[in-house]
């Protein structure tokens, strides 16, 4: 069998000096791909054939690795066949007698595939985020849905367990909503739900939780709000709700049941259930006392 020459291998074979970085050998495949003048090969240095970023990578990683272990495997570098072009490549390098023996493979297709995979991953992540958002939102009112409210409440109680600030839970229920549907129609009922949702969003801060808890019932968790602040909030909300007109003479009214978080036991698994139940009892009381009013669980039990 005829002895093969190094020129036949479809990879760039290069030898450089570990100290001076001077090119000492480059096979024909390499000189052609890198546009090197084979007569002046010895005038080139390593940094003439790799990009600036790859040169920095060489000094900071490849050379130290070669010096300490004798070789460096599958490192990604960019070749520069001319000033405007960069060719993605993968290199193996080995040290022998103060010379670095390189075998460098062009990896343009692999790099393109990698870039495509990266952008596909970014696209998928964005879509997943979009879908996650959609699963958290009530389609009619665009408020958080019940599931998302529970998740956010649990996260909040974990935070409050570490750093407590007064927090109120409010269940807000539209009065006589069945009648509104019956008299003005289901579509008008939907519009009322949307308008009240917008009012709730407008009246609260970004750190508060505002959710559609069920049909015509809403949950608001007021962050950093003491009993007095929450009472003022509820008074204002009654006024805001009553500005939503149903007909010439009839306006919307809401009932609110409230409870206030206590500082201890905030990480217990049934903690939300406990406070929602309290707010629900207070809401029931507000309805029983004639609607269009707020009742607080704490007050029911103190008086
Ligand atoms: N338009 C509309 N109506 C809904 C929606 N979800 C629930 N409802 C209606 O809301 C009404 C709730 O009625 P009730 O639970 O009797 O409450 P209410 O009439 O508000 O009476 P009180 O709460 O006691 O003042 C029902 O008629 C439901 O059909 C919705 O998405 N859109």
In short:
This protein is α+β, with helices and mostly antiparallel strands and 303 residues long.
Please tell me about this protein's structure.
This protein is of the alpha+beta class and 303 residues long. It folds into two domains: 105 residues, PAS domain (Beta-Lactamase), CATH 3.30.450.20; 166 residues, Alpha-Beta Plaits. Helix content is 47%, strand content 22%. It is built from ten helices and ten strands. The strands form two sheets. A five-stranded antiparallel β-sheet has the order 2-1-5-4-3, sandwiched between helices. The chain has a five-stranded mixed β-sheet with strand order 7-8-6-9-10, sandwiched between helices. A hairpin with a 5-residue loop joins strand 1 and strand 2. Helix 7 runs antiparallel to helix 8. The longest helix is centred in the middle third of the chain and has 29 residues. It is elongated and about 105 Å long. Guanosine-5'-triphosphate (GTP) binds next to strand 6, helix 6 and helix 7.
């Amino acid at each position: 069998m005829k002895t093969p020459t190094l020129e036949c291998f479809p990879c760039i074979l290069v030898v450089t000096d570990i100290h001076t970085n001077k090119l000492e050998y480059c096979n024909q495949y390499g000189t052609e791909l890198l546009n090197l003048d084979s007569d002046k090969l010895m005038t080139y240095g390593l940094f003439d054939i790799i990009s600036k970023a790859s040169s920095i990578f060489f000094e900071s990683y490849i050379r130290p690795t070669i010096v300490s272990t004798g070789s460096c495997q599958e490192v990604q570098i960019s070749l520069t066949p001319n000033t405007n072009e960069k060719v993605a490549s993968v290199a193996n390098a080995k040290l022998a007698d103060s010379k670095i023996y390189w075998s460098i493979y062009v990896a343009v297709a692999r790099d393109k595939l990698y870039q495509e995979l990266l952008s596909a991953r970014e696209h998928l992540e964005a879509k997943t985020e979009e879908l996650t958002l959609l699963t958290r939102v009530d389609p009619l009112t665009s408020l958080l849905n019940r599931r998302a409210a529970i998740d956010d409440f649990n996260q909040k109680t974990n935070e409050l367990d570490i750093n407590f600030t007064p927090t109120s839970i409010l269940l807000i229920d539209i009065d006589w909503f069945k009648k509104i549907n019956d008299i003005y129609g289901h579509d008008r009922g939907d519009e009322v739900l949307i308008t009240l949702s917008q009012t709730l969003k407008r009246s609260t801060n970004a750190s508060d939780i505002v959710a559609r808890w069920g049909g015509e019932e809403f949950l608001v968790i007021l962050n950093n709000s003491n009993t007095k602040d929450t009472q003022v909030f509820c008074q204002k909300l009654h006024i805001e709700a009553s500005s939503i007109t149903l007909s010439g003479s009839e306006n919307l009214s809401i009932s609110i049941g409230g409870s206030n978080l206590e500082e201890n036991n905030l990480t217990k698994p049934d903690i939300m259930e406990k406070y929602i139940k309290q707010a629900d009892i207070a809401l029931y009381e507000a309805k029983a006392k004639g609607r269009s009013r707020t009742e607080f669980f704490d007050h029911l039990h103190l008086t």
